[in-house]
Design a protein that fits this description.
15 strands; three-stranded antiparallel sheet; 2 domains; CoA-transferase activity; formyl-coa transferase, domain 3; 433 residues; alpha/beta; elongated; 41% helix
């Protein structure tokens, strides 16, 4: 099944879809997203998924940096950009102009949350620093994402996921033993920071309901990168040196990892001693392995992994993968095939989940978009807006919130302050609203 061939909408709604729609948790909350690239936009996207109106401010010419990263879609989007900007509206403003600052200030009374990831001092230079905006709106929740501690000596350093992965020790724990340090396949530090920032904003919104006051939230990529190390980080502190790297294996559980069957790889995750006994007796049919005292408990198996691993691999390699998977599932042992990325996205499992949808696009026809991963009351949260073309919401948002006339908007466009959307882009966005 090819993901590209899937229809934009399901032919008939299921029972959950036909139920009366419930208000989304953040309906009525308005967010000004001044961030770009990954961590900040992800934070704002999470808030948008839960129902907030997110207004993404972008430069009229270039937009978000990620509009030029990844595979091109249409004229102004890419796969990278689309992954972090669903359920938002794009408004173009050149923040270097005084007119743009005036527009931000005019919007501020209607804004609950502001998210940005300017370099240290950048927001203040633009007139958008926390203290200034707090004076204008004390209840504003202001979330600033940066690379490092804003009060430390590295505050001015730009934050990039790959650099943080290196500095936080993530590359040192990833990969196979004896191989060079290896970055994660995705920007894991940005992902962690964006999700953590969204959690902090949600907590501040909850508190504001009781206290009426806003908050300054500061998120550092380096802090979140260290948090990703989790139990490995604490183990390194206890050992006084880096823990060993195990690649696809688990440092504490055996067998737990990737194994090669006769016709392809699979994952086997034996979580306890009872499962190990079932695995040896009823899956690979090697009773002598479970009877060996060296492998009687998980602690013993981990200690003697160098002796156990080749025995297991030899036994597993004698079986076809499909048969092994069937036997493992019959015994209640966690297992699975190792899928390619395209294979996973094209699978029946993914299609049934509704997580991947195709939405209309004014240039490309349709585009694949991930739906929010959250389910509330049995329903997946909806995609209310496809990732926006550059500036698609400029006219509608500024007219609705600030009552700007077409003449005023055209004048600002002439002055280079903003760029108005083409008619096709604006009409396409309204179809999903």
């Amino acid at each position: 099944m090819d993901a590209k061939t899937q229809p934009a909408e399901r032919a008939a709604p299921d029972a959950a879809d036909s139920a009366a729609p419930q208000p989304l948790p953040l309906a009525g909350v308005r967010v000004l997203d001044l961030s770009r690239v990954f961590a900040g936009p992800l934070c704002a996207q999470v808030l948008a998924d839960f129902g907030a109106e997110v207004i993404k401010i972008e430069h009229p010419g270039r937009g978000d940096d990620t509009r030029d990263w990844g595979l091109r879609i249409g004229q102004t989007e890419t796969t990278y950009y689309n992954s972090m900007n669903r359920n938002k509206r794009s408004v173009t403003l050149d923040l270097q102009t005084p007119q743009a600052l005036q527009i931000i200030e005019a919007l501020l009374p209607q804004i609950d949350v502001l998210v940005h990831n300017f370099k240290s001092g950048g927001a203040e230079k633009l007139g958008l620093g926390y203290e200034r905006l707090k004076a204008l709106k004390p209840e504003l929740i202001y979330c600033a994402v940066a690379g490092y501690d804003s009060s430390g000596p590295e505050a001015a350093r730009p934050g990039y996921d790959l650099v943080i992965q290196a500095e936080a020790g993530l590359m040192a724990l990833n990969g196979e033993a004896g191989q060079p340090p290896l970055k994660f396949g995705v920007a894991v530090v940005d992902l962690m920071t964006g999700m953590a920032a969204a959690q902090a904003v949600l907590a501040a919104l909850f508190e504001r309901q009781r206290s009426g006051r806003g908050r300054l939230i500061e998120m550092a990529l380096y802090d979140c990168g260290l948090m990703v190390t989790g139990y490995y980080g604490l183990e390194a502190l206890e050992l006084g040196h880096d823990p060993a790297r195990y690649g696809n294996a688990h440092p504490s559980i055996m067998p737990y990892g990737l194994f090669e069957a006769a016709d392809g790889p699979l994952i086997i995750a034996v979580g306890n001693n009872a499962q190990f006994e079932k695995f040896c007796l009823h899956v690979i049919e090697r009773p002598e392995i479970v009877q060996d005292e060296r492998f009687a408990t998980n602690v013993q198996r981990a200690r003697h992994r160098q002796a156990l691993a080749p025995l297991l691999q030899q036994a597993i390699a004698a079986w076809p993968r499909a048969q092994l998977l069937q036997r493992l599932r019959a015994q209640g042992i966690p297992c699975g095939e190792v899928s390619g990325l395209h294979e996973a996205l094209s699978s029946d499992r993914t299609q049934r989940s509704g997580l991947l949808q195709r939405l209309p696009h004014p240039v490309a026809g349709t585009v694949p978009v991930f739906a929010p991963p959250y389910r509330l009351d049995g329903q997946r949260l909806p995609i209310r807006h496809a990732p926006p073309t550059l500036g698609e919401g400029t006219r509608e948002v500024l007219h609705r919130l600030l009552e700007m006339s077409e003449e005023q908007l055209q004048q600002l466009q002439t002055q280079g302050v903003l760029k108005l959307p083409a008619a096709a882009e604006a009409s396409s966005a309204s179809k999903l609203s």
